What does this fold into?
Amino acid sequence: MSAPAAYLFSRVGLARTLHLTTTSLSPLAPHALFSWFSSSHPGSGESMPDRRPLALPPTEAAFDAPSLDAYLLAVSKYYETRDDIIGMGENDWPITFSGTVGDPLADPATYPLLSRLVDEVQLDRGGVAFRARTSGLALDPADVRNGVYGGGRGGGAFNLAAIEVFLPGGDPAAFGRATEGQGLEMPAGQAFGRVCEVMAAIAESEVDLIVGVREKDRAAMQLGMGLGATEVKEY
It folds into this structure.
């Protein structure tokens, strides 16, 4: 079965950041490419109102796996909607790899494709920043420190300017309550420690650390800043 066409999830006034996913919305479409615009960086799995299909050519409307051409087409469509583009990308809002169901950095097999996408886009718009949003659990702290995700140390898989890690609780107990029933592959306390280690590794690398927290979760905010976040976002 072919995956459905790419979609734009848009809302009036929310047309700033382009989110690209490497994960599916449905088990029937395990490799679907979806994209949406936002200025508020909606969290993974949230309902996206007013979705409308991209105006893709018939031969591009459905595909069995994400392709470089499909991603480039989504980026091109994004820029066609913008009337405030100046320079070579240095003033652009970032392009963000986001998960809809699952973590966009969970499958290293997708890294070569994402790397090619970054390279191709930056050939024309060298100043465009790429980011990724992750739970942190899919990342190996050693890989982060070795520059796999960016920073130019060790021949990174792709050049991310920032990684946003969502921190659902500021201590092991709060983290455990927030992630209960989510099918963690390790005990909550161990998962909390792993996420903290990953955040510290990002902060030590040449990639900016952004931490997402629940609204008014001051403990998580303080922990994120203490681990080296350059920005904290409330959801």
Summary: The CA atoms of residues 170 and 222 lie 8 Å apart.
